[in-house]
Amino acid sequence: MPFYAETKTGSRWTPCVFPYRPEEKRINGGTRLVRAGSVGPRVRAVQEIAHDHENLTLSQLREVYGTGGKFNNRVSEAIA
User: Fold this and answer.
1) How far apart are CA 54 and CA 52, in angstroms?
2) Distance set, CA 30 to CA 9, 16, 58, 77, 80 (Å)
3) Which of 3, 6, 33, 80 could make an S-S bridge to 13, C-beta 3.0–4.6 Å?
4) How far apart are CA 47 and CA 3, in angstroms?
């Protein structure tokens, strides 16, 4: 199952999709991606994408799973 996450690039959070659950590491109160053994960008909102949502666009996924999206996770789970 794919996973949705938001990574921080500069001052912006950018939505992305991973084909697997990304490896995370807590550092100084923040969570970062681990890539090839080294620490990557900050990450938040890591969640498995529901099967019914796999064909949504990245913008639509952000609205459903993103921390600033129109629909929060509890609402989308209640609808699904």
Assistant:
1) 6
2) 14, 18, 24, 26, 30
3) 6
4) 5
Rounded-to-integer distance, Cα 38 and Cα 61, Å: 27
Per-residue model confidence as pLDDT tens digits over 22-44: 999 999 889 999 988 889 999 99
Residue 73 DSSP code: H
Nearest to 63 by CA among 11, 79, 9: 79
pTM, whole model, 2 decimals? 0.81
Closest among 73, 69, 72 to 60, alpha carbons compared: 69
